[in-house]
Amino acid sequence: MSYLQTQGITGNRIPSNGMYVGTNNGNGKENSWKLVFGDEARKINPLHDVNVGRNNLITSAIQNDDWSAYNEFEAKQHPAWYEKVDGTYQPNKVYYGNLIESKIRALKEAQAENDQEKIEIWSKSLEEAIEDFNNAPGIVPYVVGLNHNEQTAAANGVPEPGDDYFDSKWNSNIVASQGKFEQNMWYDNAIFAEDKELKQHVETLVAGTFPTSKEFNDQVQVANEVKTPKAVEVAEKVEPEQVTLAEQEETKATEDDISLQSIFLHNLKFAFKPNLNVVEELYK
């Protein structure tokens, strides 16, 4: 049974350009589901267009047995998980390392339940993922259960991570979990960098509900323009070298304000990652 069926949603497959949202009867409990499209969906999820684009590319890739366009799209969404080889993007060892971790967890759960059928399924799936890992391009990451020590790496037939990994930008939690080298806001998504009109349209739709780039820029501008009267008054009375010190302290305070605002907005971020189980459920 699929997730949607467990939630009481039955019938045809979800359209690639739609999304289901729960509605409630006033007591805070969801009791029905509604299929929404376009601007109605964007108001709920500003990255709805990213999901639509991904779904369409998955459908096309399955039909044509060609994942090159999908990989190119995902490389922009998760640049740390892909490498460009001979002009096309391919999932790298970091991508497969993350996938292998999830398969190892699933296998351990099956073993704990002594479910022989699941153990066989996940064991085979893990073997295939390890083969893909070895064939994939890119740096060798540190993966618990795969190559976290010499014995485990040898048992799985994979290399150990080297100093080049531990000293690199790939050695980061956000790289493993989200396939990105740095955190970013929803409006910084690659899809909006390529379509400014779409970005402006979506920001207009969600203003007041989600943070927007205009709000952030306005806050930065205000922070840059703020000058306390006390700081100005003191600056008029001190020596030139002391004026420089006062300016430095004021600049630092302003930068700290901006940093705090950035952290606050980043905590409201949207982050999406591929879920192969969902893909299999929708398209099997």
Automatic annotation (TrEMBL):
Composition bias, Polar residues: 1-15
Keywords: Coiled coil
Protein name per UniProt: Uncharacterized protein
Coiled coil: 100-132
Annotated region (Disordered), positions in chain: 1-25
